[in-house]
Amino acid sequence: MTKNSDDRMWGGRFQEQTDAFVQAFTASVEFDQRLAMADIEGSFAHAKMLQKIGVLSGDELAQIESGLSTIEQEIENGTFEWSVALEDVHMNIEARLTALIGDAGKKLHTGRSRNDQVATDIRLYLREQIQLCQHFIREFQTGLLQLAEQHADTILPGFTHLQVAQPITFGHHLLAWFEMLERDHGRLVGCVKRMNILPLGTAALAGTSYPLDREYSAELLGFSAPSRNSLDAVSDRDFAIEFCADAAIIMTHLSRMAEELIIWSTAQFDFIVLPDRYCTGSSIMPQKKNPDVPELVRGKSGRVFGHLMSLLALMKSQPLAYNKDNQEDKEPLFDTLDTLQGSLCAFADMVPNLQVKKDNMYQAAKRGFATATDLADYLVNKGMPFRDAHEVVGSAVAYAIEHDKDLSECTLDEMKAFDDCIEEDVFDVLTLEGSVSARNIIGGTAPEQVRFQISECRKLIATED
Ligand code: ARG
After folding, report:
1. Does residue 318 sit in the same domain as residue 378?
2. Residues with CB under 6 A from ligand 1
3. Ligand 1 pocket: which of 88, 116, 318 to mutate (most atoms <8 Å of CB)?
4. Are residues 251 and 283 in the same domain?
5. What is the pLDDT of residues 375-418, one digit of tens each?
6. Domain carrying residue 344
7. Would the pTM of this model clear 0.90, i.e. be above it?
8. What distances in angstroms separate CA 120 from CA 153, 196, 235, 315, 422, one per listed residue?
9. Do 35 and 129 reside in the same domain of the chain?
10. Same structural domain for residues 311 and 238?
């Protein structure tokens, strides 16, 4: 980074140099460089519009376009010289444009302020980055559906309070994850819809006296409309807050999945094996294979929550319109994007490539009296009120615990001692297969239902995009 002490583009009214510390303290170019391509895209459109309304000649527009293309190249090649003295990405690019093409470059800022410029740039940038997040979500969902299909019949214990509750199918469990991601995707769609309004042309805060064609600019940049209120357009960062809130929810979901993956890969559960490429070993314990990626994603969720808090606190109590506080929106936003995209990308590949240990899942479901509810339902079918059935099964479980066996391992005589109405057919409902197949209701865990839901989910993600 070069140091350049009097490149100030607003130096006219100042008699004293900016303090070197203040210059560095107020500069954002170190991090807002990330907006460079969005800034140039916005400038192309602004210049085109200025030519349309007669502020620029055709020749000036051509010069600006060629200058902006050169700058694009320089940034891509890494030869662009960023200057802290020029404070931010906007003034760096504008100064370079003027250096390249002379007076025509100075006309580009007509009817524009950095306030509407930055509000536009962040939207352009974020809009594109959200698309990438959505792409990873879709990829992850597609992988989940494939795995769910392979495991529509695989039985494992379902838990409440992390205690064995009832047998479920693994496909059903994976479809629960699919649903979380489906709502996450939908939230991002809504976020983009609200964000996709163009601030450019609102200038510093009050609009501009030039007869800008804002509808044309909006069309060129793919926004659904120009903003209706200039004060609001240049100042609010609610769209960034909304995205970070959506990201925080996604990270919450990923952290829940991470937690299950971590538990399932312990020696005690041993339900799954994570792909080696997502784990590391220990420098001292040769036997260790640690679930690093799920653990990191679980940990990284905290930092995204933190960014959401930063942005809320940043925006809180800001009077209209633009305040320099808003320059602080970028780092939390960028880090949220990096963290979210990395986490989604890792999960989209890691989860569909899990090795599933069906036998261990099955054996675990057999322990813990997972079919006790089925026995109660059986008694209800025989005419017993549910509360009484609950009581009878409770004492049956106590008996089985005392004799160290599962309910399905009791003899018919032992069963009959719990209640007379129990007959041979009780053993049909006490099996794990019988239990899951009985739950063949919309949203239930039966293999038939899981297959049906998979086909519904496939339609959902195919039609929407
Ligand atoms: N770097 C500034 C930001 O990110 C650009 C807007 C500056 N506007 C101003 N009036 N100082 O917010």
Report:
1. no
2. 28, 32, 88, 114-115, 118, 322, 324, 326-327
3. 88
4. yes
5. 999 999 999 999 999 999 999 999 999 999 889 889 999 999 99
6. 115-151+170-209+224-358
7. yes
8. 51, 10, 11, 18, 72
9. no
10. yes
